[in-house]
Structures are given as structure tokens and as C-alpha cells.
Amino acid sequence: MSKVTSQAIIDERGRNILRPALDPCYFFLIDFSDKSGKDSNPDIDGLIRLRNISTYFNQYLHFQLKSTNCLKNNKFYCSRKIIDYLCTTNVPTILFVVEVDSKRVFWLYLDEKLKSSLELHKDKKGRTFNLSHFQEIVDNFAETNQQWQTFAKKSDYIETKNSLDKIVTDYRKNIEECVGLLYLFGKVLKNQLPALFKQVLKMDLKDVEVIINRLRDEGVIFVTANYYLLENEQLGVESLFKLLNKLNLNSLDSVFDNKIERKTILRQLSKIEHAAVQDYFKTLVKEILELVNNPTDNDDILVNLELLEEFVYQVPKETLKIVRIIIGSETPLKTLGRNMPGFGDYKGKSHEDLILKCIKLLNKLRYIDLKSVFQLFLRLSLHSNSKIRSEATKGIENIAEYNIFVLQKIGYGPQINLLNEIEKWSNGKQFKYLTPLLEVCSQLINPSFEGHSMTDYNTVTIHSGPLSVNDHLKNIRIRAISLLKKLYLLSDELNPKRSIIKILRKASQTPYQGNYGEDMEKMVLDNTNSLIDFYITITPKADNEIIKEIEEEIHWFIRRFTRDKLSRICELESTIASITEYELFRTFVGYDTRFCEDLDWRKAQSIRKKKIQDLIQDISKDNFDEYQTKILSIIKNYPSANPGEFQYFNIFLNEFGRQKPELAIRLLTEKQDQFDPFIIHLISGIWKSKSPKLARNLIYQWVNQGKHLSTCSYIFTYVGEIDKLLLNAIFSKAIEVNDNGVLNNIVDAIASNYPKSKNIKPLFMKTIKKLTENGNSDWINNVWFQKGFVTNYFTRNDFDIILQNLLLIPDIDYHTEEILFPIAEKYPKKVINYFYNRVYFQQNNKHKENCYFPDRYDAIPYNLHKIDEPLRKQAKKVVPEIFVWFNEDDWLIFWEASHLVEAIYPNFDDVLERELIKLIKSKNNKKVRITLSILKAYEGQTFLHNVCKQFIKQFPDNGEYHKEMLLVLSQTGTVSGEYGFVEAYEQKKKEIQSWKKDNDKAIKTFAEKYEDYLNMQIEFEQKRADETIELMKRGFM
Description:
With 1037 residues, the chain is an alpha+beta fold. It folds into six domains: 3-154, 3-Layer(aba) Sandwich (Trna Endonuclease, Chain: A, domain 1), CATH 3.40.1350.10; 155-247, Winged helix-like DNA-binding domain superfamily/Winged helix DNA-binding domain (Arc Repressor Mutant, subunit A); 254-365, no CATH class; 396-561, no CATH class; 579-707, no CATH class; 940-1033, no CATH class. The protein is built from 52 helices and 16 strands. Strands 1, 2, 3, 5, 6, 8 and 9 form a seven-stranded mixed beta sheet that branches. It has a three-stranded antiparallel beta sheet with strand order 10-12-11. Strands 4-7 form a two-stranded antiparallel sheet. The two termini are 54 Å apart. The model has no long low-confidence stretch (mean pLDDT 89).
């Protein structure tokens, strides 16, 4: 017997000993492991409610049970995990130890006194306890019950209910109304609550304050730093239900005009079934209907739709009517311009924004009125706006998906109803909605369910696993597969067919997660054989790309199920093998890893290259027309294919051009338009052949005609050599037609042919200047990796032209830094000046209607990846050069300069530190401001302390500067977790302790002031975090 099995038997015996050991007159035991089984995790194994002979006490505790055959030497070893759990759990937990052989039961509760005396924190792995620390249960039930009452936990609901009953007895008149109103408001600022109670309930302010204080004292309401919150939701629902008999809900609209507050009230009301609530919702939805029927402002409509979202389940018919009106509007309102004081102009909401909100409403109603919601989603899936199309299609997916929580309530009903609806349509309608139907089918043949839930306020649980196989699921999959087959036969174009084949592939896949049974395996196998039958019928007339998809699926079928289970797999393989045209296609198209299941990619590569060579040798003048037809059949569907899969076709064209240039030039000239994506490979091969003039002459002809300029300019990169005269001709034509793509290719050609291209540097510089004029800097993507090119190719003046172009780069990324790196090594001041120019470039262009200026432009990057290294090494040149920026009387320049310093010297620098101290000692106010600006960029890191101390010594009594210094030192940067700021400030307190021992009195005094400031911040952030957590728990954030 295994060790695990043995322990399981001992655990079961221990549980059977524990149950009768606790007299049910005093203890009610609930064994959690009774059904689920015992595990090894340090959590609770059960719960015990305390009672006397006839009455339950409002107290309970948890227990952890450990069983052993025999306690050796009257000792028991407890792991660190168990000890940590017993010490930290918020519900009192007893450790039971059962000695099975003697049937003795011992218990231990680690209270604070015992934890302290045992010094449990010292044991990292665990602790061996003597039985003297335990107590034994030996018919001493009353005594044990009294002992456990001293630390058992009281039930929150019962205790809170009793507290409320006590308050009602003392102050019965208005208590329940106040509790109900507080629940309705959800969260209320403490300084506003008395006035709100007085206004809504018409109560005397003194009575309100007395009630609030009593509710708080009795623990009925929870108090945070700023809010009053109801402690128990059940009490709130009960109290609000009674209050609704007299409360005029319509009057609340004038009390709360804030959208967020109104949404909270509507959310709370939606939880209650009451006639007054239903009447109120009907009134609100009637007002919204009136608004959308007579619209004046999209922003107002959107606000009301957001309110409707809170009670949409209560008014589904009216909501659908509102959605139809908005979607069907023939003359939607235009987007209005808005102005927000302090923020400037902004655009209001558009009609598209309203439709997107309608999609959210429809998602909530998809199981209430599936047919109506589905029809509306279908309509929107054809909308001209891509985002609306996408969201509507996702909505259709949501209807069709197997959601675990929906399955638990209504089974496969939504999927069956969807298919019933779709199968009624005509062929034309089914094909019209091809895209959403493919998404539906993709979900319907998914063998797994999914879902997610919130375990608590900060924990999301993802659910997934295999579906339960029954006749309904089998029928759904068969019908979905049949629909896909029908859609395939209705399609004339390649792309839809490929999409359908890829979705059908899902029908042969079993669940990725969870254990599934033979019924799932058999269902999927039956579906797979059905696919094979279908593939046999379509393959003879299918496009090569479809046959390739099917052939790759065959490999999967055989690996997954083995040949003997696939009744017609050999017939499908034979059908594909008989298609001669496809054999040529699979040589040219596809990746090596998929060429043949039995070969690795190296052998596949060797076979394919040999076939290509044999094919080239076989092509002659006599059979040229035949091969031309075959070659064109390969690329007829190229626009819809993956270009990467045509690697060997490109190799073939290049080799064909190199080995048989006369035939290649004929192919190129006769079928030039059809070969457009592949011209570069063919013409480059001819260029490298024994007749390169054929290629040059044709390119000159194209340049004169302004045709294929991109190919003409890229050929020099492809073949690794440059024809100077031809390249100049291409440049002139590119200028004439203003083609930036060709200009960038010219830059690429010169860079990739370095150092052979040294003699045409003037052309390179002219091209860069022209690109700058055109607002284009794409050339760096082709040059950044050319090692040595930028370093050795350019003079000092050339760099000025390059830097002028690089002003156009919206973000300094890694590629840009590769270009800047050699400039920073040689001329660091130029790079600093370049960043200065970027700041002004941004200021001068961001408000202009300039088509070259991007929406987002980051003049100084947040951090640098490479050029900071050469700039740091030349700090004596760089730091003074940046300090020149501060001569400008412009806050933006100050800010940008400070952050450039931080980007270059993220960990500070000796030269920088000396310069800053020099500025401080000058006692010049402007220079001091420079220092403060730079220090603020470093987010309070400890390496600033020396400069900060010098600052305080120079200005021991300057209160204004001390405030600035508090801000400098207390900055934290990014923190994580609700208590991130608290932890950061606590760390800063530790970092400052050495200052309190400094010999300088000013430093000591400041340290005390700084510590007091940190304590205030810690207290504030602690309260803020506590409040945030409470609000999150209650769903108010």
C-alpha cells in the first residue's frame, strides 16, 4: 500500500474518533473533508458551533485535524505552514491531534501568550510540541465548552442583527429608515450624511446625528476615513424594503445630479423587488425613450444609457426599443465640440459611441431575449465602423459560447435556439452574414466550457474544462459542422473557404484542459471521420491552398487518432496524391517543418531545392508555355496567402533568372502584371546571370515609364552591388513622382552595400534631405543594424543633416539609438543639442495642421537603452551642455532638461553631483531652482542624500526650500498593492535614521521634521488604503 493511501486511512480513522469525542449537547461539528476528502493543505478541516443542551451560542471556531497511529515520546511535529496558518487566520482555529491506536484526542489553541512563550517565530521549518502544551478531551465537555467560548468568534449577521434590534428598541422611530437610506446611497461622505438624512427623511438634524452615532457605536455602520458604509447588506435590503413604502424615489433625482451617485442608487434598487421600484424604473425608461426619440445631445443620451445599464434586466423590452431607435437613426446627431475649464477643448460623444454602449446593453440581455438580441447584433456586424462590427461580432460569440454558469442554469438552450434560427434562413442570408456565422460555429464546436468569477474583491477565478457529452451536444456539433460545409460550398472565394476549413479543424480537437471520458473521445472521432468524408468530396476541385490546409490536417488526424480509427484516411491521401498540379505547388509553397511529417526541416530543404533544380533544367523553349501556365497557377491566389510560405517559389524564380535569363526575361515581360509581388526575385536572378544587361535595360525602361520603382530601387540591396548611374536615375524619378518608399530603398541600398558605396555618399545625403522635406524618417529601420556604416561613413557636417531628419521620429526607440550611438561617442554635444531641438520641434508643431507631425511626440524619452553609456562617459562635456538649457525661462524646458539628466544618469554621477553642489553653494535663487528641478526627476532615491544634506546646510532656516526638499525626498515613484505608499514611506523613514545622528544641527532638525511629515503621509495613506479596500469589497470601486 502506498504512503498516501496509508495516511488517508489513518486520517479517516482519526475523523471517526473525533466525531464521538465531542458531545453533541455542547458541540455541533461540521466536517468539511467528509465529502471532499482530507488534503495536506494548511487550511480548515471543519467548523464547530458551540451550544449548551438546548441552545446554540452565537459562537463558532474552525479546526485543523492531524491523525497519527502513535505519538512517539508524547510529542507531535507541526510544520511551519500549519503554525503560520494557526497564528494568522482571522477565525480562531484549534489544532486537533488524534492518536488512533489509543483513540485519544488532544487539542491546542495558540493564543498570544502561548505563541510568545513558545517563541514560534524562531522555527523556520516547524516545531515539535510536547503533549504538555495540549489538553485532552476526556468527558470534560462543559469545561471545554467554557474554555472555547473565551476565544470563539461571533457570527457577524446574528451579532449585527442583535445590535440593530437593540438600537431600534432604544430609538425605534427612525432607525430602520436611516439604515435603509444608507443602503440605498451605498457610500456617503461623512460630512454629507446628516444633511442628506435630514433632506430626504425630513428628520431633525440632532436626531439624525444621535442615530448615526448610535449606529456607529453598535457596529451597524462601518466608518472609513471619509465614508459611512453599511456593515451588513441583508439588513440594508430589509430596511430599504420597508422604507420604500413611504419614500418618494423621484425626489432623489433632485438630490443627486451626479451620474456616479445615481448609478449607485439604481444598482442598489435593482436588487429589490418592490412595486415602488418597478414604477420608478418605468418612469426613468419612459424619460429615456422620450430623449432618444427627440435627441438634442449625444452626451446626454450616453449618460442616460449608462444609468439604464444599472437596471436593464428590469426593463428588457423597453431597452430593446431604445436600442432599435438609436441604431436605426437615419439622421444621427453630429459630434459637438466641448470645453472643460482648465483642460481646454475636446470632442463630445459621437453616434458611434451610443451604438457601442447599446452593444453593452444587448450583451446583458442576450439570454433574456436571445432572438431579438441576435438579430440586432447581426445588423451591427455589417456596420461601416470597424469597432462596432468587432464588438457586435463579439456579442454574437458571447451568445454562442459555452459559459459554465449559463450551462448550469439553462444547459445548451442558447446554442440550440441559435441553430434553430440560423437554419431557417435562405442561402443568401446565411452567406450575407458569413463572418458572424463562422464565429458562431467556432464556438459551437468548441469541446470546452469557460467562465470567470470573482472569488472576492481582489481575486478572479478562471473556470475551464471539458463539456458534458449528451445527445444535445452531439446534435449541436453535427448541425454546426453541416452549416460550415454548406457555407463552404456557397463560397466562391478562397479566403472564406480557408477560414471555414480552419474552423472545421476544431471539430477534430479534444479539450485542452481537464479530464474527459471516452464519450468525448468518440464524439470527436465521429466528427473527424465526417470531416474526412467531406474533404474527399471537395479536394479534386479545390484550390491548391485548400488542399495544403487539408493535407496538414491529415497529419494531425493520424497523430491524434491513429490510422486504424480513420476509415477513409488512405482514400483522402490517395486523392491528394493524384493531383499533379498540387505536387508542384507544395514544392514551392509552405514551410519546411510541414513539408513531410517523416522528415526534419533540413532533409525537406534538400529535397525541395533538388526538385527546383530539376524543374529549372527541364524548362526549355519547347515547353515554356506549359511551364508558364503552371507557374501562374501557383500565384493566382497570392494576395490571400501568407508571403512567408512562398520562400521556395522565390528561390526558384531567382535561380531560374540566373540560369536561364532569356526565358526568365520572356516570362517577366509577357506576364509582368501578374508577377508584380515576385519581380524582385526574377529580375535579381537575371542581374546575376551571364546576361546582366537584360536586367539593366529592362530596369531603365521601367524607370523611364515610372513603373516598378520600388523593385528598381531595392534590387541593389538584393544583389549586393550598385550601378551608380542607374541609382541616380531612380533617385531623379522618385523626386519627380514624390515616392518616399523609393527614397528609403535608395538609402537602404547605399547602406547595405557599405563600404563599396563610399563614392556615392552625396546621393545618400541628398536623399536624406529630401526625406526630411517630406517629413519621413523610415530609413532608419533599414540602416540601424548596418554595423560600422554610421560610424565610418559620415563627417561632422553630415551628422547635422541626419539629426535634422531624426527630429521627425516621434519616439526615441532602440533603432534610433543605434543611429545616435556613434554620434554620441564622437560628438556628445550634438546629441544634447538634438534633444534640445526636439523640445522646440514639439512646441512649434503640435498645434499646427501639419500632416507630418504625429499625434504623439515624446521629445525626451522616459529612459535610454544605449546612448546613455557614451554620454555618461563624457559627463564633463554633457552636464554643462544640458545646464545651458536652464538659461531659458520656460517651465517645460526645465522639466525636459531635468528628465534628460535622469535618463542619462539614472544612478547619478560624481560629475553631476559636484555640479549640483556647486549650484547650491552659489546661493543664487535661479541656480537653486535648477538643482531642485533635477533632484525632483529622481523620485527620492537614496543616492540624492548627499546633495540634499548640502542643500539643508546651505539653507538651514529657509522654510520654503525645506518644503521643496520634503517633496524631493518623499517621492516614491511607482508602487504596487493597496498599501504600496505606506510601505514606501516606511522604507524612507528607515533610510533617514542616520541623519538623526549627524553632527550638523540643521540636518538633525530637518530629519525630525521630515520624519513627522512621513508619519502624516503614512497615516493618510493607511486610511486611504483601508477605505479603498472596504469600497472594493462592497463593489463601489
